[in-house]
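Hi F.,

I've been meaning to write this up properly since the lab meeting, where we talked about keeping a consistent format for the predictions we share between groups. The idea is simple: the sequence comes first, exactly as it goes in, then the structure tokens exactly as they come out, then a line or two of notes. No screenshots and no reformatting. I'm using this chain as the first example so we have something concrete to point to.
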Amino acid sequence: MGKGRRRSNCSYQFVSGALAALVVFGIILMLSNCGGVTSSKSGSSTSGNPSGSPSGNPSGSPSGNPSGNQSGALAVTTYHYDTLRTGANRNETILTLANVNASTFGKVASFDVDGEIYGQPLYLQSVSIGGTAHNVVFVATEHDSVYAFDADAKTTSPLWHKNFLNPGAGITTVDSATDFPVPYEDIAPEVGITSTPVIDSTSGTIYVVAKTKENGKFFQRLHALDISSGAEKFGGPTTIQASIPGAGIVNDGNGNIVFGPLNCLQRSALLLLNGKIYIAFASHGDFDPFLGWLLVYDAQTLKQVAAFAPSADGTGGGIWESGNGPAADASGHVFVGIGNGDYTADIGGRDYGDSFLKLALSGNTLNVVDWFTPFNFQELNDLDHDLGSGGPILLPDQPSGPAHLLMGGDKAGDFFVINRDAMGHSHASDNSQAVQQIALGSGLFTNPTVWKDNVYIGPVGAPLQCYKISNGQLTLGSRGSATSGFPGISTAVSSNGDSNGIVWALQVDQWDNGPATLHAYDANDCTHELYNSDQASGGRDTAGTAVKFIVPTVINGKVYISGGSTLTVYGLLSH
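Output, unedited:
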């Protein structure tokens, strides 16, 4: 452990100016679309169901289309647009290469909220609220609030606002300075809702996990809210608990490991798949003792279906993925990246620290079907170089080479392309089981984006890197102009099919101290910057205070940027 640095499954944290500079420079040395965006010209209204009785089946995975969304209306219902986590919206018809520039495009609105927004904004078209159809953008805050706003900014007041606190009854957020074993700087000053929620547009439900302190005790709860009103559904909320056989560090003394609601961090986005909600947990600052978890709940009853701990007989094994969610393919397999922790799977154990896992739900059990672990897993664990700090991202089926690929990287700057049909487990002295390994030159704390045969990666202290993929191999094509310090550049892509591809790159290295900067690049040539939010004079396009790990949401001619107490909206100025 380096002097002045606290280990964390969430970031690097520094307490001196010299080491703060190190994260920008020294760390360089250390270290398709599947329908989550859908479109229809029917204009049909999506209405919530306050009775709690779902209409249709909230499967989250239509056959052959792992989307998380089943409505025909334009929508973003899950992190990175789809359950492959590609980060691409291929149904954008308004924003083009010709009109995204500082003369015609810029900030058009902002919405005030009561806390920091870490999750990605979600979007539904034509939601009936109070008898009127609205295009709605949804966000959740660290002050334990969920907001629904008119996405076209016809009003900047919330259409509805749900808060889970009651200070008079002793129900508050978790205080970052006083409630953890030591002061917690990674998310401050309070911890409430951190992850990106997920929406089932068929039943009209948004699912969210909130953390609270209630008269000295700590809780995490799964809420199912009506998209039209914010009302609780399905008899919710349900308190998140777990206990399974194991000898891990957080145990009851009777042969079982148990879920710890204070130390477990729910940063990873939620996944809706085949009528189940998958919820992943890591740790706050690696505060011991902690174990990572992946819990599964029925989307209609909110009852727990399965519980899995990646280090059931050890310690660590958090799933945080820089805010990415568990990914899923069309066959219903779930893929997660495991951070620092014990690894014993190579000798017949069930600890999977610093690994990518392929899981299958069978009845009430999550089974490990396959996995990939770098040969230097112990070094990664010892140096806090978590695998899974970027990814996993699943590529759409490839026309040549291995058809089913997974991509992801670690804090040390190693990036892997894995055949997810034969992940290869671990080798003793090399990573030859990987289809490809690339040295990015600096750590990865953001999630790659995929569009056509392009892969966009934003490491720390480096420009946006644009790769081409063919036969399972990545080759560097072009680089963007902007360089970002920690945590690197996060991206999303918008296009109209294969045309008018734009990479939206978000620079948040002033997190908690200054505004985010939005960049737009030609998706076919990242040397061509179309726009950035610093170009217009007089601060016209200045975003809200930057927050780590956030990603832009691009939909229906707008770009939505989370931030500290503000949701900023960009679009065509003529609109």
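Notes:
The helical segments are 17-24, 26-30, 377-382.
The first strand starts at residue 5 and ends at 6.

If this format works for you, I'll send the rest the same way.

G.
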